[in-house]
């Protein structure tokens, strides 16, 4: 039986159940607003968004694998391409581009021209230092951890802070292979 | 601009494959995560049980872990196939009997050490087998060439084995979720049904906010949907 080919981001995006884009944007905005009110410190809000993203990412990976049919990526370059072209498209409806590879191929940038989270958003002066889209960095980190990759994900450019694009740097720290989990031979 | 996007009902894809034979012929199912935790054990037809649930799960996980390493090492298309001679010596008949596996591993260990022929004492009782097998699995994982840790989904992977009384079908995702379905021996290729079950897992378990990832699954809706689907499998 021939293996099923991986599905493209567009195809999956078209076939999954989706929600109104404005509802998504406004709901996310309400969450960030509430976090700012509850936590007051912008750094705390950044951390909380990252943690929420991580909790989403560890579940999202299974949906991604189930719907996209991708098999394990051969190297980190392929991983980054799959995240940008299939992952982002499938869940956010936008594709990202992959650039700025380092010499070893363990660090790259995902550039988002279009970001549904930030429609209608302007950051006030009281929110200096806020990474509004920090949930995305958590999602990428959480998802990659479930496929044995420990990564560090940070924002290099943020349009809400005046830059011209959203640039997310993904750095592969190490691959963690599966080990036999039982310690005793009972 | 994006505009309003409303979409139709979700579809679990692939859609359930047509049953190849009638009747409820699946015996049991296991779901493990990457840490060896048994997330789910379902039983539909298992008249004989000799091990406790915990031992049974550990044995199953250990078996799969070892089989994955073994099949990867046996791959004739890979550069490292020094164990294929020994397989020919033992013959493939009965290789999935517990004693034969133990014997095979013993020989592989002995050959790896350049040494002679180890004696294998496989006691007839199930306790002995479990201990011996668990020891071998641990041994290979810790010490043997066969225990080289692999990333889930990497390299050559097996998807089923068949004995005269049952067939065991296996699927592993790159996220380390392992789904095992034990059916009657005449069952066909169950790779598509296993993928469908993975989709059920995503829809009913992963997306359930009351479920904590990494813990045993206690979602009634998942269980009933699964039972219904498995009943239709050949």
Automatic annotation (TrEMBL), chain A:
It is found in: Endoplasmic reticulum; Golgi apparatus, cis-Golgi network. GO terms for biological process: Golgi vesicle transport. The keyword Endoplasmic reticulum applies. Coiled coil: none annotated. InterPro entries: Bet3 (IPR016721), NO_sig/Golgi_transp_ligand-bd (IPR024096), TRAPP_component (IPR007194). Belongs to the TRAPP small subunits family. BET3 subfamily. SUPFAM superfamilies: Ligand-binding domain in the NO signalling and Golgi transport. This is Trafficking protein particle complex subunit. Keywords: Endoplasmic reticulum, ER-Golgi transport, Golgi apparatus, Transport. It comes from the Eukaryota. One of its GO terms (cellular component) is endoplasmic reticulum. PANTHER family: TRAFFICKING PROTEIN PARTICLE COMPLEX SUBUNIT 3. May play a role in vesicular transport from endoplasmic reticulum to Golgi. Homodimer. The keyword Acetylation does not apply. It holds the Pfam family TRAPP. Gene3D superfamilies: Trafficking protein particle complex subunit 3.
TrEMBL record, chain B:
Pfam families: Sybindin. The keyword Endoplasmic reticulum applies. One of its GO terms (biological process) is endoplasmic reticulum to Golgi vesicle-mediated transport. The keyword Lipid biosynthesis does not apply. GO terms for cellular component: endoplasmic reticulum; Golgi apparatus; TRAPP complex. CDD domains: TRAPPC1_MUM2. SUPFAM superfamilies: SNARE-like. It is found in: Endoplasmic reticulum; Golgi apparatus, cis-Golgi network. Keywords: Endoplasmic reticulum, ER-Golgi transport, Golgi apparatus, Transport. InterPro entries: Longin-like_dom_sf, TRAPPC. Belongs to the TRAPP small subunits family. BET5 subfamily. Part of the multisubunit transport protein particle (TRAPP) complex. PANTHER family: TRAFFICKING PROTEIN PARTICLE COMPLEX SUBUNIT, TRAFFICKING PROTEIN PARTICLE COMPLEX SUBUNIT 1. This is Trafficking protein particle complex subunit. It comes from Escallonia rubra.
């Amino acid at each position: 039986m021939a293996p099923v080919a991986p599905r493209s981001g567009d195809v999956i995006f078209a076939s999954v159940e989706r929600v109104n884009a404005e509802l998504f944007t406004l709901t996310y905005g309400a969450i960030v607003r509430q976090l700012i009110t509850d936590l007051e410190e912008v750094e705390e809000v950044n951390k909380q968004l990252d943690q929420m993203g991580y909790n989403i990412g560890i579940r999202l990976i299974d949906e991604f694998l189930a719907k996209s049919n991708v098999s394990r990526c051969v190297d980190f370059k392929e991983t980054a391409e799959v995240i940008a072209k299939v992952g982002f498209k499938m869940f956010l409806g936008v594709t990202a581009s992959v650039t700025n590879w380092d010499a070893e191929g363990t660090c790259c940038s995902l550039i988002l021209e279009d970001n549904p989270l930030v429609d209608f958003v302007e950051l006030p002066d009281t929110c200096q230092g806020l990474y509004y889209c920090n949930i995305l960095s958590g999602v990428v980190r959480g998802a990659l951890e479930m496929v044995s990759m420990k990564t560090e994900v940070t924002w290099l450019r943020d349009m809400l802070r005046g830059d011209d694009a959203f640039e997310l740097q993904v750095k592969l720290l190490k691959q963690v292979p599966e080990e036999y989990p039982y310690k005793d031979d009972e | 601009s994006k505009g309003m996007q409303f979409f139709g009902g979700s579809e679990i894809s692939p859609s359930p494959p047509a049953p190849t034979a009638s009747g409820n012929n699946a015996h049991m199912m296991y779901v493990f995560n990457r840490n060896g935790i048994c997330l789910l054990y379902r039983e539909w037809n298992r008249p004989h049980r000799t091990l406790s649930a915990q031992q049974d799960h550990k044995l199953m996980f250990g078996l799969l872990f070892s089989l994955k390493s073994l099949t990867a090492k046996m791959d004739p298309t890979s550069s490292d196939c020094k164990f294929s001679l020994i397989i020919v010596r033992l013959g493939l008949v009965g290789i999935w009997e517990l004693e034969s596996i133990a014997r095979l591993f013993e020989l592989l260990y002995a050959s790896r050490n350049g040494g002679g022929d180890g004696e294998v004492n496989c006691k007839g009782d199930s306790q002995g087998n479990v201990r011996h097998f668990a020891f071998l699995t641990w041994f290979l994982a810790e010490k043997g060439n066969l225990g080289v840790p692999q990333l889930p989904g990497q390299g050559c992977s097996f998807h089923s084995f068949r004995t005269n009384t049952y067939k065991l079908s296996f699927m592993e995702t790159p996220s380390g979720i392992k789904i095992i379905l034990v059916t009657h021996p005449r069952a066909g290729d169950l790779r598509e049904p296993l993928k469908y079950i993975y989709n059920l897992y995503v829809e009913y378990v992963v997306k359930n906010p009351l479920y904590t990832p990494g813990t045993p699954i206690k979602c009634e809706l998942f269980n009933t949907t699964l039972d219904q689907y498995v009943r239709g499998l050949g």
